[in-house]
Amino acid sequence: FHVQDPVNAVTDSNLLNSWISNSGQSGIYLENAAGWSVRNNHLYGNSIHGIYANRCYGTSIEGNYVEDFGRNPGNEKGWYYGIACVPQSNAGSIISNNKVFQLKGENYTNLNSSFAYIGVPATHGVGVLNVVNNLIRGNGCHNCTNEVGLRYRCGKSGTNLLVVSQGNNVVSVGVPRDVDEKTTLVTGL
Question: How far apart are CA 15 and CA 13, in angstroms?
Fold first, then answer.
């Protein structure tokens, strides 16, 4: 499911209750996720990302089940995400109650690629995001530094990233959480 939107024309929509598998690309790729709700979808065996939401602005990514993303990295360098959200300034977004698993037993130690189960690859301006109550289950590669449960990056274009990251259960993943210097983990009230 790919939404092309270079001019801010395809916003404020819903993608609900779908099964997307073995796409050869990302299962769900939104060039502009502003106002979108992506809920209760089951994605598995997709070659690149499970869900990649660019330009998140009031976006909700909730209750999805993502299995075995980044299935064909080959020798490609870069990051593959189970769920990724790139926030924009002036609004916040939510990633909650998702299940993101790698069940196929891949050996990540021999790959040039890196894998993040849930994360923020970059922000535009000041990013605000709640990442709460998600379940992440790795394949047991405890020494894999290229496998991260929760990865938060402000990036070069971002000013800073404010994340409430609470209630997440990260199991059998090389690095449970990775945060860059421009990211602040905010305590919820």
Answer: 7
